[in-house]
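Per your request, structure below.
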């Protein structure tokens, strides 16, 4: 029996689309990813001026040409090269992406007082259930440690985790051993979670609202046969969740 690690992050378009996603792998694979990822960032810095150095990959900033990526609107080839290189690192049979998204507009219709923090907790719990089911189906005895990006969502992450592992009626609660908030400096693997959460959020947002074609990054990843298990909760799914919650509370 081994302890695998699931590292995840969130990405969202305010009042439209929300996504939580990350990668599950063993310690050997995570160490390998960290070395390759750091080398890729170091290479970019060797080819950038001293006043243009980047400390990490940050999906939202790079795509907005903001923060450390200011001026990268003129670096289309560099962006494509960097992303493709990083995608190769996660497109491995030893790594699996698990993700869940929510239509935020539908969520507020069904749960009028809900906000992004509620979407975060719901997505995280859905992912934990999916991971546990998959491990049961594979007849695996492995267990899972969870690491998430430290920030404003820490309380929600702990609340979601505890609501499942402390639930005596959930037979798979033994699958999970811990949850830990870390920063991208403390755990390079969280940058890979940032990458997939952002790309899947953009895909969900395009599906729900813009009608745009799949972005090149995600298309490239799928072409590399990356293992991605992603779903999103629509209005019908949210209505079903509310019905279950009402039954638990004894609401007619």
């Amino acid at each position: 029996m081994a302890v695998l690690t699931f590292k995840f992050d969130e990405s969202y378009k305010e009042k439209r689309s929300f996504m939580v996603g990350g990668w599950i792998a063993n310690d050997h694979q995570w160490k390998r990813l960290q070395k390759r990822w750091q080398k890729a960032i170091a290479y970019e810095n060797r080819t950038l001026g001293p006043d243009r150095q980047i400390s990490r990959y940050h999906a939202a900033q790079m795509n907005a040409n903001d923060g450390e990526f200011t001026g990268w609107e003129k670096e289309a080839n560099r962006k494509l090269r960097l992303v493709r290189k990083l995608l190769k690192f996660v497109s491995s049979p030893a790594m699996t992406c698990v993700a869940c998204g929510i239509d935020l507009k539908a969520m507020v219709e069904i749960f009028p007082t809900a906000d992004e923090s509620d979407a975060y907790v719901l997505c995280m719990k859905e992912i934990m259930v999916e991971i546990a089911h998959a491990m049961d189906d594979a007849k695996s005895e492995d267990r899972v440690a969870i690491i998430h990006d430290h920030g404003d969502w820490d309380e929600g992450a702990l609340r979601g985790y505890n609501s499942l592992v402390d639930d005596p009626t959930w037979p798979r609660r033994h699958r999970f051993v811990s949850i830990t908030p870390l920063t991208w400096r403390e755990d390079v693997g969280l940058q890979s979670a940032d990458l997939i959460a952002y790309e899947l959020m953009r895909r969900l947002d395009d599906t729900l609202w813009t009608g745009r074609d799949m972005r090149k990054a995600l298309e490239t990843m799928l072409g590399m046969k990356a293992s991605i298990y992603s779903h999103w909760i629509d209005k019908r799914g949210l209505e079903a969740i509310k019905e279950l919650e009402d039954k638990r509370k004894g609401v007619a």
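The chain has one domain: 3-24+94-249.

Regards,
D.
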